């Protein structure tokens, strides 16, 4: 949060609801998204945190605590996975460099990653912990503009904070995430202290479906507007009748270290940052969640714990691990392409910059790498820092070879696919017809689903 001590006390003194706040270091950065493109390389790069059972395909019946051998999160019981798109800096010469991250205030020394919150409503209403197999998505990577009222909950689900001073301070720092001077689009000015992305997940559940084909129809945001500070953080709303079960409010923060690029700001004054799906606006910011807490640990924590910000050790229902233990949990990317640590000619995948305002469109006949490979166990954590940057002069770029994907084919004798099953997409060779009354509908270039 990084509010001052006095502001912190004022904001939280009225509340007695449960709150967990903890860091998770980076597990891996690569083009995997087992919710949107299960079994196939994702169209764009994500940074992933959490348990090391994360994979290209993650069956809903998987027991993540049992399959994982470590987690990048502060609490040893949390083997969930969380992932978001990655931010890149576009150099004046047209090449791209992954923007590194810095640790959030009061979180220790995680290796990149995010800060995760689990929040109970201010009324003290008991929340129901997520169940095995639960998963959800917030945001749409294809969006390039959001026409929503600033006083609505929808406006505040995904925002940005420009830290105008170092150490995450300066104007607006006294406000809750999503309030004050925060913006719905990427800041259009230099942010010497970095840019913080704020993402709130829905906290109301239909009580039936652990997932849906859209990955968001089974959840909803509470009704009733914002809290007194103009944020969702402690919004007093109630769950709608269609989604009556109150879940913990999951909120994530990522601190992008954009200040180090201030001396290479474009001559035309335009902001030089772009998300990995070719989004220079921030409207396409999105996040995914797959539940993986061990046993009833999350329910026990939400029933009893309130660290009020920076003290995970105060939650006696859970077990903490050190920065070293968190940072020693990682995976090696399984796609033979460069995504970070050096300048690259283009965003990984086929992601030309699309400014909008219309939604982005998929690139047809994408020739980006679409296969994975077996890799040896990693011997050191992935590189998430950036080399020293020179002034805005042309820099060498790295040509990453593109491997054509396998041809699309469909077996004429394949059985009919069931509801919500995959039925097509680039590289898909399985069933292409759906059982009645469902039809095969393209979700993107790589994935079609029976809906």
UniProtKB/TrEMBL annotation:
GO terms for cellular component: extracellular region. Residues 415-451 form the CBM1 domain. InterPro entries: CBD (IPR000254), CBD_sf (IPR035971), DUF1996 (IPR018535). SUPFAM superfamilies: Cellulose-binding domain. Residues 382-391 have a biased composition (Polar residues). It holds the Pfam family CBM_1. One of its GO terms (molecular function) is cellulose binding. Residues 392-401 have a biased composition (Low complexity). Residues 1-18 form the signal peptide. GO terms for biological process: carbohydrate metabolic process. Keywords: Signal. Residues 377-424 are annotated as: Disordered. PANTHER family: DOMAIN PROTEIN, PUTATIVE (AFU_ORTHOLOGUE AFUA_6G11970)-RELATED, PTHR43662. This is CBM1 domain-containing protein. It comes from Crepidotus variabilis.
